[in-house]
Amino acid sequence: MTTSFVRTLPVALALALASIGVSAIAQTTAAEPTTTEKVKEAGKDAVDATARGTEKAWDATKSTTKKAVNATESGAEKAWDATKSGTKKAANATERGTKKAWNATKNTTKKATTATKKAAVKTGDAVETAGHKTADGMRSAGKAIGEKVPGTAENEAAKKP
């Protein structure tokens, strides 16, 4: 062996190993988000949907309560005026005010229930989507692993052009 051959052999060997390392790094760098990132994003979506639904339910409850208070005050004022002029008028006014308060409470309860149902549906959808994405990611990972294991169907399929 010549001296120049002995000197160039380590350089060629180092370059070959470096190119293998660069190739391995390029293969492991993914353009798509990981399954964990997808699940985290779906979880955030579910939390956001629940927060929005809760906010709507709270707003509906506040609005209904305000209407009920106003209707009760109005009914009470009418009752007082009617009391001055007669008991029968007072009873009717109180009954009307009570009906208004009851109707306002019913409407608010319906709004709150609807908002809560919508939030629950959105949360369920987000969780379902996250589960599907996780399962798809696990299947893809299993297939990729199977392609590397000799004797598996995935490995045989990967060998065919």
From TrEMBL:
Q: Where is this region: Disordered?
A: 36-161
Superkingdom of the source?
Bacteria
* Keyword Signal attributed: yes
Q: Where is the composition biased (Low complexity)?
A: 100-123
Question: Signal peptide location in the record?
Answer: 1-26
Q: Where is the composition biased (Basic and acidic residues)?
A: 36-59
Q: Where is the composition biased (Polar residues)?
A: 61-73
Cite the entry's keywords alphabetically: Signal
* Record bears the keyword Membrane: no
Q: What's the protein here called?
A: Late embryogenesis abundant protein
